[in-house]
Amino acid sequence: MNGLQISPFITSLPKVELHVHIEGTLTPSLRWKLAQRNRIPLPYATYADLLESYNVLYNHRKELHGDTGAPTFLETYFAGTQVLCEEDDFYELGMAYLEKAADMNVRYAEPFFDLQAYLPHGIPAATVLNGYMRAQREGAQKFGVRSNWILCFIRDRPVEEGIAAYEGGAALGGRDNGGSWAVSRGGAG
Ligand SMILES: [Zn+2]
């Protein structure tokens, strides 16, 4: 067994996932698909080029490892959010994660989500939340993974932007769209 394989014992254990940033679960294949669907230009001519761009771990901190021109982890993370535009996009991302979670025998999850990555681009909070909350409901039925969702704040962005994100989400209410979500505070990122 190599270091990338998970033993059947571990796979079969029931689990909870308490810290997962949903945007970070966006796979290259879903990113490519949504970019085509939403006509969002990517700086990669082919899917193979996009895949290659994910080879970034060595370059996580440019101040330590130098700038090779490859995107860092966070640059890739935020670039990925640019292909998420429509309610169905957020729904598909949520369902893809919950299906993967079920494969790992995760029974309960608390996915984190950003609003600040979308509101400045004119994507309403309702688009994001309605998509994720639909995935929350259907994911529980289809995959047997219950979840409560947590609104995150991006700490290196202006406070006003964070307040707008909070107010945009709070105006919808955690229960009005049939879902349940909360706000993280004081988290360590
Ligand atoms: Zn985190």
Q: What's the short version?
A:
With 189 residues, the protein is of the alpha/beta class. The chain has eight helices and five strands, in the order αβαααααβαββαβ. Strands 1, 2, 3, 4 and 5 form a five-stranded parallel β-sheet that branches.
Give an account of the 3D structure.
With 189 residues, the protein is an alpha/beta fold. It has one domain: TIM Barrel. The protein has helices at residues 8-12, 28-38, 47-53, 62-65, 73-81, 87-103, 125-143, 159-172; strands at residues 15-21, 106-114, 146-147, 149-152, 181-183. Strands 1, 2, 3, 4 and 5 form a five-stranded parallel beta sheet that branches. Helix 8 (159-172) links the parallel strand 4 (149-152) and strand 5 (181-183). The two termini are 33 Å apart. The mean pLDDT is 87. It binds zinc ion.
How many distinct folded domains? 1
Strand segment tally: 5
CATH fold naming:
TIM Barrel
Give me the secondary-structure category. alpha/beta
Look at the structure and give the CATH class: Alpha Beta
Compute the CA-based radius of gyration. 17 Å
Major pleated sheet: 5 strands, parallel
One letter per element, helices H and strands E, the order comes to HEHHHHHEHEEHE
The end-to-end distance, rounded to whole angstroms, is 33 Å
Please state roughly what percent of the residues sit in beta strands, choosing from under 5%, 5-15%, 15-25%, 25-35%, 35-45% or over 45%: 5-15%
Overall pLDDT: 87
- What is bound: which ligands? zinc ion
Low-confidence residue ranges: none
The number of helical segments is 8
Estimate percent helicity: 40-55%
- Would you identify the CATH H-level superfamily? Metal-dependent hydrolases
Question: Based on the structure given, which CATH architecture is correct?
Answer: Alpha-Beta Barrel
Q: Any idea what the shape is?
A: globular
Domain Adenosine deaminase: 14-156
Protein name: Adenosine deaminase domain-containing protein
Keywords: Hydrolase, Metal-binding
Cofactor: Zn(2+)
